[in-house]
Amino acid sequence: MTAPTSLRAAAPEALPHDTRPLPPWVPFAVAAVAVAVALALRGVLGSGPVLTTILAAIVFAVLLNLVSRQVEGSRRAADRTVTTVVSAMFVAAMVPLASLIWTVLTRGSGRVDVEFFTATMRNVIGEGGGAMHAILGTLIITALAALISVPIGMLTAIYLVEYGGGGRLARAVTFLVDVMTGIPSIVAGLFAYAMFALIFGPGVRFGIGGAVALSVLMVPVVVRSVEEMLKLVPAELREASYALGVPKWRTILKVVLPAAAAGIGTGVTLAVARVIGETAPLLLIVGTTTSLNLNPFDGRMATLPVFAYFSFVTPGARPEPALDRAWTAALVLMLIVLSLNLVARLIARRFAPAGGR
Amino acid sequence: MTSLTPTTGLTPEPAPAGAPPPPRAPAARSQTPRRLGDRVFSGLSTSAGVLILITLAGVALFLVTESLPVLSADAADLPEGGFLDYLLPLLFGTVLAAVLALLFATPLAIGIALFISHYAPRRVARTLGYLTDLLAAIPSVIYGLWGANVLAPYVVPTYGWLEANLGFLPFFTGPVSASGRTILTAGVVLAVMILPIMAAINREVFLQTPSLHEEAALALGATRWEMIRMTVLPYGRSGVVGGAMLGLGRALGETIAVLLVLSASGGISFNLIGQANPPTIPSNIAAQFPEATGLDVNLLIATGLVLFVLTFAINFAARAVVARRAEFDGASG
Fold first, then answer.
1. Which stretches does the entry tag as region Disordered (chain B) (predicted)?
2. What is the DSSP letter of B264?
């Protein structure tokens, strides 16, 4: 092995003072050579664009290592190779993600029209139809989930930070919140179904069940972020308030929570963004329907993710219109999630305490 | 209620002002619960904490009660071979897809995290970090649609090449699936899905490397890679392991993306590119549940219970790894 395992071992063959690093134009020259080689090989092998790019990257890494090894020594050569590999990994990982966003944008824009947002799928076969019922269903169920989880999550966080004091119950709750974070969404759906099936009998489907399932996923996220934010509030603020004779509950409501408001707003928005795209639990306990149902306590409701799923899986006799609807639903869903993230970011920036980083 | 006149400053009720603080502290604390507002508020927040305990106990309890009929059912009512024979291919498929995803995602996540934390220019790095956070939020149904429509057709020629050249390996024996919707494709989609969250965790850990360590390495003449290898990677190792296990937990429980991508029909097989792929527990539940009645529902819930226990164990191990790191940090200052 030429690569030293520690600096101590490297010391005898430390970077010589008289060797200069490669001139800055050399990597570009090597890159040009690599591209040329890859293009030449493309003629021979008949490789596609992806394979050509990969080949060019490999040739570039190897050539640059060889050149650098001659001029700068093996340590700098290894450094250059790792730089190439890490950058290539980053680019390679971005390709599928870029492809995903591009696909959703191009294929989803086909049905972004008035009808999609104002019509339901009632009595629609083939072309036309819309997802108004699904969009409203998603909004209703997510709002209900937030209504359930935000108070529970915030109170739990307040308990953990202000009242628990590291006691046995507080440690147990912290642990269980961690466990809840890892619950697979489908298990949350099964839980909601199993619970409501015991009460209302088997085969139960309604919107509030979906809200309960989403709450199971949302509560731990809210607890975590609110807890972090409450911990950031300086103890001096609380102590100053106590010293003024303010009772603890008023201190929490009037001093601690306002100080953490921005962070809490960000955390809650991100939690909503996380659950609004959930499909699996809603598939189990809410089901789907083609008509508008605004009553979450009675009968199946359509939701955007489930709508996209069923449009793709059971497109009907002529698949194209259903597939278009599926992609547009995906696009709308993605835009909702991304704008929620942006809103969270804006809340964090706008209301950040002065002097904060 | 108390008056907040800044001139007096102190609570009027307890001992006279001017008493030494240490003996007063316990007395003041024992006063607090007596106030009605405090009692109500602490009661509310404590019961919220207890509600979480109850919810989780409820998850376990309801899943178990709904699974019990499977154990007591007649063998004739169950699928052929009983519950275990039904479960094993599902469990195999779940673990296989998740492990494949982890194999692809772990090195890439480390690469992305290193790129953002130590290679990209700082201004660019912030935007990139923000971008990976955004990508982590994209709903799984979108990843599923993309995997089934874009990725699966695209990889079919590659699978053909794998069969032709590496067909002697048990993983790549033919015949190749014509749709490309195999367990390997599902693994790739899962890898793409868990990549942002894993990269975000790794990035956080790498950024926490004490800059004194890094600067010391650089001052001793280390190149950037030597600095990373000697300070960043050892420091972030347990964080990377913990992040990978959290990613594994996500991949195990992922439902809709796998359901959309995977065309499942087979049993246990190590052939990654064939036509008969094992289903996974969550995708099987989602596929069968809408149509299921009677004992089939209990059967599906029982597999869900197994998944719950599995992800619980994985997450538990992940927390233990991360917690050990935290203790280590505390010890080393």
1. 1-33
2. B
Write out chain A's pLDDT in tens, 357 residues. 444 444 444 444 555 544 667 788 888 888 898 888 888 887 777 667 778 888 888 889 998 888 888 888 888 889 989 999 999 998 888 888 889 999 999 999 988 888 889 888 888 777 888 889 999 999 999 999 999 999 999 999 999 998 887 788 998 898 889 888 888 999 999 999 989 988 888 888 899 999 999 999 999 999 999 999 999 999 999 999 999 999 999 999 999 999 998 889 999 999 999 899 999 999 999 988 888 888 888 889 999 999 999 999 888 778 888 899 999 999 999 999 999 999 998 888 877 655 443
**Does residue B20 lie within any of the structural domains?**
no
User: What's the CATH number where B167 sits?
Assistant: 1.10.3720.10
Q: How many CB atoms lie within 10 A of CB B157?
A: 12
Domain that holds residue B240: 90-332
Give the A:B interface size as CB pairs under 8 Å. 288
Quote the CA–CA distance of A246 and B9 in Å, as a whole number.
10
Window B:115-144, CB contacts with A under 8 Å: 115-116, 119, 130, 133-135, 137-144
Indicate yes or no: CB of A187 within 8 angstroms of CB of B63. yes
Q: Residues 160..179 of B with a Cβ closer than 8 Å to A: which?
A: none
**Do the chains contact at B252 and A183, CB–CB below 8 Å?**
no
Facing A334 at nearest CB: one of B46, B49, B142: B142
- Prediction ipTM score: 0.86
Alpha helix (H) residue ranges in A277-318: 280-285, 304-313
Single out the residue of B90, B131, B8, B91 nearest to residue B313, CA to CA: B91
Query: Which CATH entry fits the domain spanning A118-350: 3.30.1780.10, 2.40.330.10, 1.10.3720.10, 2.30.30.140?
Result: 1.10.3720.10
Neighbours of B150 (CB within 10 A): 17
| A contact residues 98-157, partner B, Cβ 8 Å cutoff | 99-100, 103-104, 107, 151-153, 155-156
Q: Is B11 domain-assigned?
A: no
> B264 - beta bridge partners?
B277
Length of chain B in terms of residues written: 333
Do B225 and A104 lie within an 8 Å CB cutoff?
no
- Interface test mutation site (partner A, options B135, B138, B181, max chain A beta carbons within 10 A): B138
